[in-house]
Amino acid sequence: MNLSVSFEPFFQWPVIALASALVLALAATGVLRRARGAWLRLGAASMLSLALTNPVFLNEQRDPVKSVVAIVADRSQSQTFGERTKQTDEALKTLQERIGRFNLFDVRIVEAARADGAENRSSTRLFSALTEALRDVPPGRVAGAVIVTDGQVHDVPNMKSVLGFDAPLHALITGRESDTDRVVQFTQSPKFGITGKPLILEYLVSDEGLRAQTGEVRVRVLVNGEPVAEEVAILGVKKPLELTLDRAGTNIVELTVDPVEDEVSQTNNQAVAIVEGVRENLRVLLVSGEPHAGERTWRNLLKSDASVDLVHFTILRPPEKQDGTPINELSLIAFPTRELFVDRIRDFDLIIFDRYQHRDVLPTLYYDYITQYVEQGGALLIAAGPEYAGEMTIANTPLVGALPATPTGDVTEQGFLPQLTELGKRHPVTRGLEGSASEPPNWSRWFRVINVDNPVGEIVMKGAGDRPLLILNRKEKGRVGMFLSDQGWLWARGFEGGGPYVSLYRRIAHWLMKEPELEEEALTASGKEQSLEISRQTMTDEVPVADVTLPSGAKASVKLTRVEPGLFKGKLETSEIGLFRIANGDLTALTHLGPANAPEFLSTVSTLEKLAHLVRETGGTIERLSGGSGDIAVPDILPVRGRMEASSGDWLGLRTTDETTLRSVSRLPLFAGLLGLGALLMMLASTWYREGR
Fold it and tell me: Of 241, 328, 574, 681, which has the fewest Cβ atoms less than 10 A away?
């Protein structure tokens, strides 16, 4: 029960004040003159003024409310090491039982950092979870909070005012005081690196816990799963690492060190850096045999690509042409054959012969150099025209050793729709070309195809009479492509609606230059939030199940489902972060889910240091659950009031609140009822009686 008085005036307060002042002034004048009954008149005037304010007695019936206690259980990945999960579960159960003995507290359990996004799973964020749990609780109702963790918390506030409540914060630490761990981490790793050029990284190997920072450690270096070097590092001293990336796209650089005895976890015995390999501008040599409509298509396409450095030569005046023009009047550049095909041939990533024929511009020996260039890893594209079927065909030179097909001498000239072969529907160069899904394909006709014999390699497009139109072939370390038509410019000009010449030409060029995403047999994986996505490109109709090794060492199998010809995909939902290894048949792939250097794994040793300052500032206590015997000791729980001490070595204090909730209110007006009216009339009557005597 809670008694109080409130006022509900009959008039506005200024009116009551003015009336009361006049009445009291008159009554006070009588007192000063010592008139008979003056004090009674003053009392009657005061009572009348009070009646105008209408005082009301309130009787409130209130119920006490419970104080709110938040228990935050750390469920981050570092809590899975050793006995920490078991200790957390036992402590959580004991705390609930002991707090439940008191009817003063409302307990809220917070399971923090359990699979709530890759960003949060990479670090332990307990205080953000605590704030969210108490968001709807007034600060005065918070009795305190108890955190059960290994001490590796990454969002500890700098001061207690950030918590949003004035109550004790207690911390119970899992793990052992004798924990030790060896950690390898990248301290400097660029996001990008140029392929073929030195790349400088920096790393550090350290021992945490009781182990002294002395001695040498053997460090193994792997790039995309392949060992590339082995180094010796000094504990606690940063060391540079120089690497050379040999491929464009995502590259995963790994460092691994041997484990030490009794360390907490071997997860951080491995460090990962993800570096995007970037090619320097691709150097392409385009040699056109003579001007024709398709020449400009190739030139415009290559010149429009900012990543391509193009060297283009067109033979405008063949040696056999004799028109009487003096040599000194010709504005032509001599074809630098030796410089291009002997001295600098290795500088080019791709050589394109566009309707080129042998006219003694190139010495016969140079064709042999081009063949050797291909066999040693170079890329060659033949865009054939009628010249390839003529007497001066390059198939009659030493270059024939690199060519995937030889001409029959015939040219088929009739309208046809280029079509994908069964291999072409699965090959990454031609798979999914815009317009290829319909039958017939939704693109324009071509009118010429060069007939060939004995094609080798993969025929991915066919022309009139199912003759080979596009052949892709591997030649030892290099690659060769052959386009057996010069009609691609019809697509570029929009004839009959045109066709996807840009994507087709670029895919051919990039396949020849060994871009990883265009490999026929390829296994790739990528991570997004809590999903691991696996893609398998293949020329076969079926693929086996993918075997996945998780960062924790656990195994999982993922079924790959065909999404289109030559492409299979699968997905694995996971709560782990780190390096995933995927195997499918004889192919392997690596991918990293979450930040490469996740704070969750850089420090795994159980510690009191990160939380000690904040806990003591709030008046709480921080204790280890285990003393080393294996059993845990959870301090007792005691309710405390006001500013009493809230912690000790063997008990945790939780503050009780004085707040209540209103259940009902009864009101009694002092002057509005018969009692008040009678009292007022009695006072006035007394005045009259006294003055009448």
Answer: 328
The answer, yes or no, to whether residue 399 has pLDDT greater than 90, is yes
Residue 139, Cα to own-chain centre: how many angstroms?
35
User: CA 364, CA 383: separation in Å to the nearest integer?
Assistant: 20
| CA distances (Å), origin 302, targets 285, 291, 529, 531 | 10, 17, 38, 38
Smallest Cα–Cα separation from 366: which of 395, 392, 389, 345?
A: 345
Q: Is the pLDDT of residue 317 over 80?
A: no
pLDDT score recorded for residue 118: 41
Q: Where are the alpha helices (DSSP H) in 219-308?
A: 293-303
H-helix or E-strand spanning residue 97: helix 84-100
**Residue 186, helix vs strand vs coil:** strand
Identify which of 279, 225, 287, 220 has the alpha carbon closest to the alpha carbon of residue 255: 220
Q: What are phi and psi of 212, to 5 degrees?
A: -75, 145
The single residue listed with the structure tokens 């009445």 is: 23
The secondary structure element, H or E, covering residue 600 is helix 599-602
- Core vs surface per residue 297-336: b (16+ CB within 10 A) or e: bbbebbeeeeebbbbbeebeeeeeeeeeeeeeeeeeeeee
Quick check: 312 pLDDT over 60?
A: yes
CA distance 14 to 54: 15
**For 478-494, what is each residue's pLDDT tens digit?**
999 999 999 999 999 99
| Separation CA 611–CA 169 (nearest Å) | 10
| This prediction's pTM | 0.70
Kindly state the tokens that stand for 523.
């296994």
- Condensed to tens digits (0 to 9), the pLDDT of residues 457-485 reads 999 999 999 999 999 999 999 999 999 99
CB contact at 8 A, 87 and 42:
no
pLDDT of residue 199: 92
Distance (Å, rounded) from C-alpha 28 to C-alpha 690?
Answer: 17
Per residue in 572-595, pLDDT (tens digit) is 998 787 889 999 999 999 888 877
pLDDT tens across 592-629, in order?
887 766 776 777 888 888 898 998 888 888 888 886 55
Whether the Cβ atoms of residue 110 and residue 204 lie closer than 8 Å to each other = no
- Count CB-CB contacts under 10 A for residue 601: 26
What is the C-alpha to C-alpha distance for residues 540 and 423, in angstroms, rounded to an integer?
9
**What is the DSSP-derived secondary structure letter of residue 347?**
G
Is residue 336 within 8 Å of 344, Cβ to Cβ?
no
